[in-house]
Amino acid sequence: MRQTFIVLTKKRITLFATILAVIFIFVAVNDPAIVGASATTRELPIYCVQRDNKAVSLTFDAAWGNEDTQQLIDILNKYNVKATFFVVGFWVDKFPESVKALADAGNEVMSHSNDHAHFSKLSTDQIVQNVTASNNKIAAVTGVAPALFRCPYGEYDDHVIKALKSMNMYTIQWDVDSLDWKNLSAGEITQRVTSKVQPGSIILFHNAALHTPEALPGIIEYLLKNGYSIVPVSQLLLKGDYTIDHTGRQLPA
């Protein structure tokens, strides 16, 4: 009886160790902050930028609703701040007047795919077709073809990044997540952003998030008061040769 108990215990320990190993491998593969030396063989998007000055970017993903787009434009205009909006192709189809309003106000309008698909499940050809369709829709409204891309759901792998590089597009993630899509209060959104921001940060918001318009003025005022300049992502990025370290930080070559 005791021998059977020992055998069962060993099996449970082995199973538990296997589960822990699987979890560790999954996290290591998906979190650039702990990739370490293996990052030299991985393709990573840009999460943030090494900057000598205190420049940051505000970014908004637009995929679903349109309740507050004009309100966001008005807030940005009040502070003379320009942001980068990553929009989905079907959002452009539904709200072309909002896309034009964003561009007319001086904000960048970039691609967030054509249909918010899971890009890691698409072939390279499908990715190129998808992004091209989105780019064409944006360019038809704004007159400017997007040079930046944000993966739907923040999901990517090597072949996704390589496909976008083949299109001469930068893939942009973020290092400060407001989590506004979780309907956090304005105070919670503000605390998350102001406690995590640093020079070169790319901050993630969403349009149609419940409390973002309430939180945005205070966040902008905090940044300006603390010496930050707020620029669109294309102005935040380093020009010329660069590298991306294992955390996704863009560095000069």
Automatic annotation (TrEMBL):
Limits of the NodB homology domain: 54-231
GO cellular component terms, semicolon-separated: membrane
Domain of life: Bacteria
GO biological process assignments: carbohydrate metabolic process
Pfam families: Polysacc_deac_1
InterPro entries recorded: Glyco_hydro/deAcase_b/a-brl, NODB_dom, Polysacc_deacetylase_ArnD
Coiled-coil segments: none
Gene Ontology molecular functions: hydrolase activity, acting on carbon-nitrogen (but not peptide) bonds
PANTHER family given in the database record: GLYCOSYL TRANSFERASE-RELATED, POLYSACCHARIDE DEACETYLASE PDAB-RELATED
Protein name: Polysaccharide deacetylase family sporulation protein PdaB
